Amino acid sequence: MGMFAQSKTAKFDFTGESAYGMTLLSGSTKEYNADPTVCTEGDVTLTLNGQTRWWKATNGNELRFYKGADMTFKVPEGNVITKVELTAKVPAKFESAVGTYANGTWTGSANSVVISTNITEKNTPISSAVVTYQSSSAPMKKDPALSFSETTASGVVGEAFVAPTLTKATTAAVVYTSSDEAVATVNAETGEVTLLAAGETKITATAAENDEYNGGSASYTLIVTTPALDVVQEPYSESFETEFGSFVLDNVNLSEGLSYVWSIDKKYKCAKASAFVNKKNLPSESWLVSPWIELSCAEVERNLYFDHAVSKYFGNVSEEATLWIKVEGGDWTQITSIAYPEVPQDKSFSPFETQAVSLAGYEGKKIKVGFKYVSTDEAAGTWEIRNFKVCSGDPSGINEINADKFDVNAPVYNLAGQRVNANAKGILIQNGKKFIK
């Protein structure tokens, strides 16, 4: 390795089922880890100071830091820390009085490094910390200085995409990778990206350590969407798992403090409308509107399906979360036959329920479907929509209609989308499935 020192690394991992003797906390507990808590990996010690919690999280456990808390990394005398990389599901909000801290990574040269929180409320979590260190008696290897010109980029399937520019100081070869190759692939040598499907992936450029430079990496988040269409033909569907697809937003009224109402909730894989911001109900009117949908002239059963869930915070949900249809050349008409899921007494949200709305009378026409959300300064509920589908034929054969595990107590609807008694006769729908009684 010539005159330069060989770097070593130590990784502190908080995602598993045990973490340095700490108690895994969750729920509404007010407990914190002992202050201080000392964690050890090889030659490196990590001391947690102030209020921290090792927390049970849905997508892997994490270590949470609260206002005023910090972490101290230390290596044996005769060694120096050159890099600390913090991994988090959300941007890690920390700072350091020594070295340089940016975007979750500390760089510098110190035997002991203190990284403190930079928050005023709530908390900032990490899932792991990787410490790079070396002997202080040998010359320092250089920083590879890998950096993309943008940390976030977006592209549309079928359209040309120009990747952010990578700059580097290292003389080592760079290898490009994509975290989700179903969304986009990347040429390992050139960094050229091919967009494949809607979703989100992380494009990473990695350089190995060599005789002169430390190893390192840089990445950007790539958000891929599908092209929006003005006109579609049945059968037509949008899942709303990762994007609005060809639906568009019409913000009729956004009061001060609101920049949007409708968003994609990637955790629950749905389109979500809410005007509750900073613990305040804000007046609004916002529509989620489909493209024009061309319906065939065939005289067959044709329905609109969607799953929806509501919160308990509406003033009057049947007036503030409504469904509308417009025929080309006509005006919007409210569909009053839809039913709303019931919110359990001890819950804030209802479960998702499938709605079936008859499109009888619309044969051969071109229609738009609109989900209208309204809020006031007294009430701002949350409305969630997923698995939108317009089709003819037997809905039980449509694999895009995602019904949960069959529930014999689930609401029953007729083909007009009206909620009926479970003992009703005729063609009925329950759990998104059609049956005859």
From TrEMBL:
Alphabetized SUPFAM superfamilies for the sequence: Invasin/intimin cell-adhesion fragments (SSF49373)
Gene3D superfamilies reported for this sequence: 2.60.40.1080
Recorded superkingdom: Bacteria
Residue ranges occupied by any BIG2 domain in the UniProt entry: 165-211
Entries under InterPro entries matching the protein: Big_2, Invasin/intimin_cell_adhesion
Pfam families: Big_2
Name listed for the protein in its UniProt record: BIG2 domain-containing protein
Organism of derivation: Prevotella pectinovora
